[in-house]
Amino acid sequence: AGVTILSAAKKIKAKKVVACLLGSQFSKKFSDADCAQALTEGVILSSYKFTKYLKADPNSVQSISFHLASKKGTKQIQQGVTLAENLSRGVFLARDMVNLPANELTPLEMSNIAKKIKGVTTRVHNLAAIKKMKMGAYLSVAQGSAANPPYFIEMHYKPKGKAKKKIALVGKGVTFDTGGYSLKPPKSMETMKDDMAGAAAVVSVMSIIADIKPNVEVSAYVAATENMVDGHAQRPGDVCKALNGKTIEVLNTDAEGRLTLADALTYAIKKKPDYVIDMATLTGACLVALGLRCTGIMGNDQTLINKIQSAGEYTGERLWQLPLIEEYGEELKSTVADLKNIGSPYAGTITAGLFLQHFVGDAK
Q1: Which end of the chain has fewer CB atoms within 10 angstroms, the N or the C?
Q2: What's the longest Cα–Cα distance across the chain?
Q3: Residue 36 is part of which domain span?
């Protein structure tokens, strides 16, 4: 309904929009707060447009207000609207970060955005600190980008009182991916400014968490870097040593996201969270399998996967579980190191998930 309202407003070039909130009087399935949240999100999210490099559109909607049809349920409706506003603000931040060109959204700029977020504690580690932390897999990707060095970002939110659970969020933060020496073709490289979408999602969650105030402790980790080509970049066949001590034979420098995530996951696990959720634009194989309208999900905790899928059904986000078939893990065995970073040409998303399992231990 919200999308329809805004679409109609744009067609008639309306500057101001007033939506009438009826609450749940026509639906027993949803509460007043649910109805208000859904309508508000529809209106706000459909209004998004990345305009930083464009002239202002004189016909764009300038304000959106809501009229309550009845005083009944006013408090719940206001709660729903407020939640929708907060969630939409986070979504807009993620979209803006993904849309920014890589010459602006460098690893340093990503860390600056994280440091500006209020209500959370943020710590940023520079190149020297990352070396001291011995994040060798992460550094193997970053070593080809002297102009824009890596920054490891950690953010922390702690609720008032005792937290029910401790959750770790890990986001892939490759701000531009050339593929390294396993160079991508030009067409495939055009959109690689968005290879940090996982990090954008994680940072955007942390940007609104203090306003939503969940009763859980949440930590977020981003290994921000570029994957570039220069005289210092890693080569196919190089071996690196990850934070957990495992050695990795890098046979394809374009399978770099899993290298950065390996060390980020290891670091997150050391904090002993109850759950770890990793978000990443990890493989093109997932796009081949599921297309652009569905997200692949894998994991070692079926209860958590079921909860995330249920949340997706409620919000209209499609999630499809892919199996972690143990036999495919044989493809990751190397003759010169503990692991290699790619398997066969088949089931690339599954083998990527199996690779990352080596860096979470028994954690869920």
Answers
A1: N
A2: 71
A3: 2-97
**How does the average pLDDT of the chain come out, rounded?**
93
Report how far apart, in Å, the C-alpha atoms of 347 and of each of 31, 182, 350 are.
42, 20, 5
Separation between Cα atoms, residue 243 and residue 136, nearest integer Å: 6
**How many other CB atoms are found less than 10 A from the CB of residue 246?**
17
81 with 118, same domain: the answer is no
Q: What is the pTM of this model?
A: 0.94
Per DSSP, helices labelled H in 220-347 are 257-269, 284-290, 302-315
pLDDT band at 25 (very low <50, low <70, confident <90, very high): low
- Residues 115, 90 share a domain: no
CA 268 to CA 243: how far, in whole Å? 11
Which element (helix H / strand E) includes 175? strand 166-177
Do 136 and 255 belong to one domain? yes
Positions annotated as catalytic residues are: 184, 258
DSSP tag of 69: S
**Both 79 and 164 in a single domain?**
no
Domain contains 184: yes
Q: Distance between alpha carbon 85 and the CA centroid of its chain, in Å? A: 20
In a domain, 58, yes or no: yes
Q: How many domains does the chain have?
A: 2
Q: Are 3 and 64 in contact (CB under 8 A)?
A: no
- The Cα–Cα gap between 92 and 19 comes to 21
The answer to whether residues 137 and 93 belong to one domain is no
Is residue 135 domain-resident? yes
Answer for the pair 24, 76: CB distance below 8 angstroms, yes or no: no
Distance CA 126, CA 80 (A): 40
pLDDT of amino acid 26:
56
- Please indicate whether residue 19 or residue 331 has the higher confidence score (pLDDT): 331
Q: Which two tokens stand for residue 105?
A: 């959204």
Burial status of residue 26 (CB atoms within 10 A of its CB: 0-12, 13-18, 19 or more): exposed
What is the enclosing helix (H) or strand (E) of 355?
helix 348-357
HSE-CB for 353 with a 13 A CA cutoff:
21
Verify that 218 and 260 share a domain, yes or no. yes
* Beta bridge mates, 21: 68
